Amino acid sequence: MSEKNHNVSRRQFLTYTLMGVGGFMGAAMVMPMVRFAVDPILQADAAGDMNELTALSDLTEEPQAFSLTYEVEDGWVTQTMEDTVWAYLSGDEVVALSPTCTHLGCTVNFGGDENNPDQFFCPCHFGRFEIDGTNVPGTPPTEPLHRYDTEIRDGVIYVGRPQPQQ
Hints:
Layout: H1 3-6, H2 10-42, E1 51-55, E2 64-74, E3 77-90, E4 93-97, E5 109-110, E6 120-122, E7 127-129, E8 147-153, E9 156-163
Antiparallel strand pairs: 1-9, 2-3, 3-4, 5-6, 6-7, 8-9
EC number: 1.10.2.-
Domain Rieske: 63-159
GO molecular function, one term: oxidoreductase activity
């Protein structure tokens, strides 16, 4: 074996050393930026948080608007948010619907249309939804109202975040 193949010149040694140190320093500078970009994905989602809505005894078979207050943490800021939830009983099941129209985000009301008193109505664009939140064909909304995840604990209804209906 030749000695030339196994020996590293001074120039090669310095090149390898500087490349290694430069790579280490580059990685040390890039890693915090990568962590910053990926961190929100790794955080536990707040969608699983359930918030108290009302007592089960307050519900009827006709949708009623209930105020929902919850806190949202965004970085270092904690904000108190208020939403409205349309809730009613369908047999033994609690149905909780978002009041946000899926067409352009307007607010819907139950019984707001004189011609269709048993439906949700968006007065801005004349969108209509059935009592279960499904959109009425031929009206602007192309998908149903979003539905809240619900839980009943000790006679109290808790809701999560609204999810699109299938």
